[in-house]
From TrEMBL:
Keyword Transferase included in the entry's annotation: yes
Protein name: GNAT family N-acetyltransferase
Record-linked InterPro entries: Acyl_CoA_acyltransferase (IPR016181), Bact_Acetyltransf (IPR050832), GNAT_dom (IPR000182)
Domain N-acetyltransferase: 1-132
PROSITE patterns: GNAT
Keyword Acyltransferase in record: yes
Keywords: Acyltransferase, Transferase
Amino acid sequence: MTMDDYAACYSLWASTEGMVLSDSDSREEIARYLARNPGCSFVCARGDELLGTLLAGHDGRRGFLYHVAVATDRRGQGIGGELVKRGLAKLRAEGIAKCHLFVLAGNELGRGFWSRSGWEERNGILLFSSDT
Ligand SMILES: CC(C)(COP(=O)(O)OP(=O)(O)OC[C@H]1O[C@@H](n2cnc3c(N)ncnc32)[C@H](O)[C@@H]1OP(=O)(O)O)[C@@H](O)C(=O)NCCC(=O)NCCS
């Protein structure tokens, strides 16, 4: 993914169920994210049509995936799985051994995908957030 893909990505994210957008999805913040994690995020496109996205990055210790999304009419063709595979391969190449991601409670589609893809659903962890 490059910033040339941003507009199409944002419009896919905005129309994807189970995905919450925030200030961190602005053009400036996504540009900073891509610059900080070069080569980790991917899109799947055919011609001008954007089919899927994956944001991936790490903090030097653990990897994190965000915004795994595939256009509704292109699901079930292996696109999501392939995007994740590529993101993980890049994180692994950077020496990152473990990766986490967040799924909104109630997103059963996402939950099913991650479980089917071999990801372990973690219990006993609470997420706390604060403004800096
Ligand atoms: C989740 C999502 C990205 C999956 O994309 P996709 O391209 O349809 O997934 P794939 O075709 O690559 O599927 C990979 C594997 O997961 C399985 N799978 C996909 N969605 C599944 C689901 N909801 N439940 C169970 N298994 C699922 C597929 O059958 C496939 O299994 P296989 O490798 O044994 O054949 C897509 O449904 C989507 O964009 N959902 C909305 C956004 C979202 O919820 N993102 C994740 C939240 S963090």
